[in-house]
Sequence to fold (1069 residues):
Amino acid sequence: MTGKPVSPRSFQEIILRLMTYWGSKGCAVLQPYDMEVGAGTFHPATTLRSLGSKPWAAAYVQPSRRPTDGRYGENPNRLQHYYQYQVLIKPSPPDLQALYLGSLEAIGIDAGLHDIRFVEDDWESPTLGAWGLGWEVWCDGMEVSQFTYFQQVGGHDCRPVSGELTYGLERLAMYVLGVDHVMDMPYNDPDSPTPLSYGDVFRQTEREYSRWNFDQADTAMLLAHFEDAEKECDRILSADPVDKAGREIVMAHPAYDQCIKASHLFNLLDARGVISVTERQAYIGRVRALAKRCADAFVTTEAGGGTLADAGA
Amino acid sequence: MPDLLLELFSEEIPARMQARAREDLKKLVTDALVEAGLTYASAGAFSTPRRLVLTVQGLTAESPMQREERKGPKADAPAAALEGFLRSTGLSREQLELRDDKKGQVYFAVLEKPGRKAAEIVAEAVEGAIRGFPWPKSMRWGSGSLRWVRPLHSILCLLSDESGAEVVPVTVDHLSAGNTTEGHRFMAPGRFPVSSFDDYAAKLKRAFVVLDAAEREQTIWHDATTQAFAQGLEVVPDAGLLSEVAGLVEWPVVLMGAIGEDFLGLPPEVLQTSMREHQKFFSVKNPKSGRIEKFVTVANRETADHGETILKGNQKVLSARLSDAKFFWENDLRVAKAGMGEWLDGLKAVTFHNKLGSQHDRIERIAALAREIAPLVDADADIAEQAARLAKADLRSAMVGEFPELQGLMGMYYAREAGFPDAVALAARDHWRPKGEGDSVPTDPVSVAVALADKIDTLTGFWAIDEKPTGSKDPYALRRAALGVIRLVLGNRIRAEMQALVSSRMTKHEAKQAAQQWSDVNQAIADVLSTAAGNEEVFSLLLKSYADSTESLANPDKRTREHEELLGELRESIETAARTKTNDLLSFLHDRLKVYLRDQGIRHDVIDACLAMPGNDDLTLLVKRAEALAGFLKTDDGTNLLQGFKRANNILSQAEAKDGVEYSFGADEKFAETDAERALFTALDGAEAVIRPAMREEDFAAAMTAMASLRAPIDAFFEAVQVNAENPILRRNRLNLLHRIRAICGQVADLTKVEG
Fold:
């Protein structure tokens, strides 16, 4: 520990510090994936890259959407659109816990004054056919991150194992900055010529999307899109791996995009309340089937470590 | 005599797994040591979130030499047999002994295994324990293939005695044992060496680690109660939470904080559950107000500001959590005060079981049944029905969604706040009970009616769809439901004919299932018709005849004779199925009752004897009989009367079988020859005069006492006369007399079924 860290002053400063920190620890600092996802894990830099034998280290912010969590911008803690900070390192380094604690220090959490604990929390994603063991990390009784050692993704055993860290940025930042309502949190430097709060940036969109998610989204269209995405995913993966010029190109990523789409469309349908309890499992199973096929395809590609890499599937 | 110290140092072990892991480590390692020939004086296992530790004291320094003799082939056996024996023993021919045996000379191999050093055995035992450790869930990490509950970082393994300590050469994949460990993650970073268990425990304490979970628990409880006491408050005991929290910290520091004034109006159970489940806080109660006003949290470190920052953070998280709880409470109250209609509607969309409909369907059935049961338990039928309709409404409340364990309790609070009668509120809370063997039985009449209706509905429903418990599988907890019925009925002395309650329900279920099958058949017919849709003419013809036939089936005036027959058969098959299932369910209840009564010391043959009597579906009556019979059999008169009865019954049964008649014509005293015979007539008359009113009053004990008075006259009778007399008139009269004994003594229970 290098003395008392200087506290950050805004939401964006916390993000920038995490970027700098994980960049300095050897992670490729990636950009968000350009599609709607429910969590940072869906970014192919996590889902697909946690598969196969090739080493990997990446950190990125991922805007995440959970339509059912929308509260019209009124709830102090709940948002239908929020940010996750995601780190994935493969193989998981032996000092991952220490590296993680370093990142807390980097954003101004002094381990000498706070009570930081690793509390059992196993992670499972039925839609991705994935699970892992780990903890939720508590700081003074508050969950600030999810820490997971991936054991299986897309139905494939992870060999080597990836270590995944997920920070819920808004909640973490509210704690560090001492703010009680997310909309009151300073987004940029509060002393800048145009100080903007989180609410200045997002209150309007939260209201609009809450209405659309809950009341307006055209369910017939969403259902049709779901079916389309499912079909397209299947078509892409069923295509001849050899293209017209004789190159062998398996299209795992384009197929996975369709899987992500299907997953988000399912979330939207769920928020509209048109999926019954019994249908729910069936939809989740359909998305999982896509995720598994994408994983199967990815591990045959060069980035996925080639065909021999996946002995454990 | 060396001592062993083993520490397996890892990332944080889930608190709930630690106690079991300590036992497993001790057993795995000591079993392996003993198996390999070592002995030890004592062993102890410890755990903290980051380490699993074993100490074995007074270990033998090496295992004894082992000698084994193996018999080989005969001296004149083929060479191949000898070669094979040499290969398997690893000896040469010169090392074998030739010994005389019954059938000639035979080769013997004497194998001597030298004793092994403790270190070697320990190394194997530890490696075996690590590789075979029975974690409930284990994982791999990095590039390795070793499995542990979380990444395993180091192994400390020492054998120490007066002359010093040596590292045991354990190697498991990339990990090699050493003599160093780490203290508290934040308060004392860095590794240090240790030389023995005592040294280890002492140095850990200096490095802010309390090794023994029991000591951590004591510290936490002591500090928490002391802090609370100083302010005139009490910590609410919670052994499960205490053990969990002790598994989350290496250096427990107890901090007490206040709950915001805003939240003190929430039901205490809500505060307690929210704090325990989400924050692992203890609740602190003010004995004067009875309210929960403060909380205790246990941090894992000391800080320069004496925990101020930590406490502030925890308080903030708690406020956010309780704001949620308060939001749920207030929203729920709004729905409750509006009559809970929103929740009841919502239950239509919640499936109870796909063959038994929604929770709403279930509630409708329970409400009807509760109405029916109400008069049997002196409850108001309208209130019982209302209570049944509302009892499960809280399943849809936000609070129960968040804390399922508050189900029932919230129902009570919401019903009260909404101004429903108190009996309705109590039923919401108590109709789930008894939940287990230790749980008490509700006594408020409305609660009893709803609880009984709930359980009978569950049993009947699952019996109707053939989802009975089998062997160890009982996914719908039907054994517990059956025991619930038994305890509710007996505990409240309810007189109910189970047969009638169950069979009317069962018939409805059966009819519904038949209707479903019928509609499946109709669907199949419709499908066939639609394939004919290409030919318009054929299609419309088919459709018309199909419509005619179904319509005429539904309309009694248009039914043909075939239709009537068909419906008759259908009704017959429904009723038969319902009867079979009802009887099966009743015998399941009887089986559970036997188990229950056996635990109360009533023999199974006593219960069988009472089960053979009419009205055995009235469980209270059944148990009254059983209790009277069991008490009766404990007396000398009782056991002796039983003998006399059996003797009478045997003679009578044999005669009846032989003669092909039943001797139930009544005996006439004028044919009595001896005094003993006449005395028996008198005794039977006297007993009957007592027994008849006693039976009317269901005073089975009095009835049986009167029966016991027959013991002496019956014995005297058998002494004095021969039943199968030469004179056929005398014989017939005596057999008729025996029949009277059988009839009188068989009124409480079928004594032929009693053993002895």
About this structure: DSSP finds 26 helices and 18 strands in chain B. Chain B touches chain A at residues 11-12, 14-16, 49, 137, 139-143, 145, 149-151, 153, 186, 248-249, 279, 297, 299-301, 303-305, 309-310, 312-314, 316-318, 320, 323, 349-351, 354 (CB under 8 Å). Chain B has a mean pLDDT of 91.
